[in-house]
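Summary for the steering committee. One of the milestones for this cycle was to obtain a three-dimensional model of the protein with glutamic acid bound, which we needed before selecting residues for the alanine scan. The sequence and ligand used are listed below.
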Amino acid sequence: MDREVRVRFAPSPTGALHLGGVRTALFNYLFARRHNGKFILRIEDTDQTRFVPGAEDYIIRSLDWIGLDIDESDLKGGDYGPYKQSNRKHLYAQYAEQLVKSGNAYYAFDTPDELEAMRKKLEAEKASIQCYGPATRMTMKNSLTFGEEQTQLMLQAGKPYVIRFKMPENEKFTIHDIIRGDINADTSVLDDKVLYKSDGMPTYHLANIVDDHLMKISHVIRGEEWLPSLPLHVLLYKAFGWQDTMPEFAHLPLILKPDGKGKLSKRDGDRLGFPVFPLHWEDPKSGEVCKGYEEYGYFPEAFLNMMALLGWNPGNTTQEIFSKEELCKIFSLEHVNKSGSKFDPEKNKWFNKQYMERLDNSVLAKYFIEDAAKDGVTVDAQKAETICGLVKDRCHFTHDLWKESTYFFIAPTSYDEVNKKKFWKEDTPAIMREVVDILEQQPTFAAKTLEENITKWIKDKELGMGKVLNPVRLLLCGACKGPHIFDILENLGKDESISRIEKGIEVI
Ligand code: GLU
């Protein structure tokens, strides 16, 4: 890369950071790290009507939780600040006026009613292009139709105005996108977008271009929804005379619903029971509370890993587990897919499981001890480690560990009806009594010897493993679940195992 890589994540603080935003931030981050560049956070809050209190803080906390360290932002500092657009307000007017002076933009004084009348007229005429643009601008109230003198009078009189981009007529050109290749642009279908409003606020388009230029952004990596704005953005760079330093563009594919039909939305998460935000979010307007990936029990490393593979692939390898550090070394925009990526909530759980299984049992034991304590059960570290080792391959989250193994510490008070129907037969109580006798006779209660002795006994008696061991499991655990039965026996110990079986025979 000849140019210093400087990329920005530029969210608007209009709500919680959704998965699409997380993925955009992540790809920007990985690209910056891969090329020893800078990852910048810029808050795009020019649209005050959509401002949501707490959203900016939420975005910053989310990036922090995922582990995306920022090089430049208002919190972090940097040479190109301020990094929040509302604090850069003073900058934009001069750029909008520069475009007016160079003939690339103009003042427009049309009232909302006049704009509405235009829209209705075009609709009634069934005009082929229904917008404020080359075909209509000369019929409207703007500096092009008023002339210099009247325009100045209107401005001096404080008439509300906007500055519109003067879209060139019928220009065709191609734009290169790193992910999508060459894209054809045709100005005949584009309108004269508003760049600046007389309330002193730029629109997204102007602020975005001016800031990317002033902040020396080298690559714009953002969601596909911005692709339709790309021709305007390229024309703005041209109008400013900034073509030589124009950033390169990469538009990321959509994240699709699990069935692949349409863009993933918050409603899909609610409907299918998976989180769509990284952290807990309470909407200040509606009061709606949403659980985040963090509260669901995801490790940030697992979350990052699965987000990275949502639209990017590592090339010729089947490897799926990547640390952040590895991704920083191998990420490339050339391996980002053009088409949308299906979101798979089950696969997310699988990722979390992979990370959990890689943790030492002593680490898992800490979560286990904490969760047990919440249920009033004290578990010593050694025991917790052993149990975690036994049940972790049946768990996706650390909070499953305790849930999956409470029966090691709390005797069952009821028995699963379905299992009971299936495994508790007329002759079962008699067999269970014999099991008690065999267990009484065991010199040690180690899983290995128990397994040898008991399976031998079952074979000798020609009873069938399932006929004996399923009811034993039911009486020990309350349901036919859990790890190897002999590990359960060993960990419960002789007295407790026997007592549960005896009690079970009575009460089941
Ligand atoms: N503020 C825009 C957004 O929230 C940023 C788009 C861009 O990256 O240019 O999506």
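Key point for the committee: The chain has five domains: 6-72+207-256, 90-196, 266-354, 359-408, 417-507.
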